[in-house]
């Protein structure tokens, strides 16, 4: 698991690295963010929380669409850049899994995230989503763009191809994680965008 300090040190170079969008882990980065935005089904005035917003690349899309947007991240340096780039959003420092600060809205029509959840193992992903669904407005949903592989074989092939560039993270395995999400009470679907990334659409099952 990465620490805030590591992301603080990465902040100044983050955008230049992800925007290249080549190879692991950011192949198709721009396409992933665009698809998250599309699957969120936005309209002006919609309340959106961007989880692990980093430098605000995903946040900006929702602000430009006229949404009311809050962005959270655990890195102070990432947030400094996000505030400079996206002055129309409201940003706050926050560790995923902890209670939301009392001075921000407690419910949102959409929660979105890009390249964050792969730092958590499957149990951690489920626990985090179970916590977050308590902060969704009725009828709301969660859209996650992230590093993901269809199965363990595809993950192993990517690992071998990446060689020394591979980071040993609990990346999503779609064939395992979709059933786990459904067993935890979510409607869940996945759309691939590149060989190593795609978009999850997650919504609580109706009672």
Automatic annotation (TrEMBL):
The keyword Transferase applies. Residues 48-140 form the Methyltransferase domain. Pfam families: Methyltransf_25. GO terms for molecular function: transferase activity. Keywords: Transferase. CDD domains: AdoMet_MTases (cd02440). InterPro entries: Methyltransf_25, SAM-dependent_MTases_sf. This is Methyltransferase domain-containing protein. It comes from Bellilinea caldifistulae.
């Amino acid at each position: 698991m990465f620490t805030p300090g590591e992301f603080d040190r990465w902040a100044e170079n983050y955008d230049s690295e992800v925007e290249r969008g080549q190879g692991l882990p950011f192949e198709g980065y721009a396409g992933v963010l665009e698809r998250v935005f599309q699957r969120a089904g936005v309209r002006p005035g919609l309340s959106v929380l961007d989880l692990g917003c980093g430098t605000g690349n995903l946040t900006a899309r929702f602000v430009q669409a006229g949404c009311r947007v809050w962005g959270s991240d655990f890195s102070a340096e990432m947030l400094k850049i996000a505030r400079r780039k996206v002055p129309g959003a409201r940003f706050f420092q926050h560790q995923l899994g902890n209670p939301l600060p009392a001075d921000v809205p407690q419910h949102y029509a959409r929660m979105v995230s890009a390249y964050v959840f792969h730092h958590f193992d499957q149990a951690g992903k489920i626990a985090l989503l179970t916590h977050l669904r308590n902060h969704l407005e009725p009828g709301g949903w969660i859209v996650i763009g992230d590093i993901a592989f269809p199965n363990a074989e595809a993950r192993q092939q990517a690992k071998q191809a990446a060689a020394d560039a591979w980071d040993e993270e609990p990346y999503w395995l779609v064939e395992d994680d979709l059933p786990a999400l459904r067993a935890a009470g979510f409607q869940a679907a996945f759309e691939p965008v590149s060989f190593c990334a795609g978009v999850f659409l997650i919504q609580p099952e109706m009672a």
